[in-house]
Amino acid sequence: GVLRAVERTRKVYDARWQGRPVIAKVFTRPGKAWYHMRREWRGIAQLQAREVSTPRPLLCGRVRGGWAVLTEKIEGAVTAGQLWERAEALEQKESLLCRVATELARQHAKGVTQSDLHLGNFLIRGQETYSLDPAMMRFGRGEVGRYRSIRQLALLTAILSEQAGPAVERVFHHYAAARSWTVQAGDAEQFRHAHRRCRRN
């Protein structure tokens, strides 16, 4: 069945291949589908090379209606976005964001930044967190710098209101610990400012 559809660009299917459950991402945009498939496939290879957990790639190629990438299906996993919808208490939401922030810190330490950062890009099962949508990631040579890292974290935490200030601060310090940062006063101030700006946008 169709899990997600982006009009005239791609569809994500829950499928079976060689008797096993898989996720099939089919790119359908005329004139761009092959390019989008290659970008997805290369992105997965980059994540694997940098030891960032992502569903294992199985196959890419031509299918009816477009070009597809098949990856393993992580059975029993749900996206962080789905967990967010189910979370009722602020403590649950804070705990989830801390977990995602740890994975984001791992990505940044490996030079990976996301150009479309949201909770749907993180898949969670038990103690494992997987990164999704590598086509929307950029891969740098060294660690992501503080300024850019803080802006990305602010984007992630913009889902929490400014009234949840202490929770927002704790997610920031959780991230900083995962990066082994010594937090300067300027870092915390920059983060607060970036969080407010992201909330407004």
Describe this structure in words.
The structure is a single chain. Strands 1-2-3-5-4 form a five-stranded antiparallel beta sheet, with helices on one face. The chain has a three-stranded antiparallel beta sheet with strand order 6-8-9. 43% of the residues lie in helices and 25% in strands. The two termini are 34 Å apart. The protein has helices at residues 33-49, 80-86, 90-109, 146-157, 165-178, 185-200, and strands at residues 2-6, 10-17, 20-27, 57-63, 66-72, 78-79, 112-114, 122-125, 128-131, 137-139. α4 packs across α5 (165-178). With 201 residues, the chain is α+β, with helices and mostly antiparallel strands.
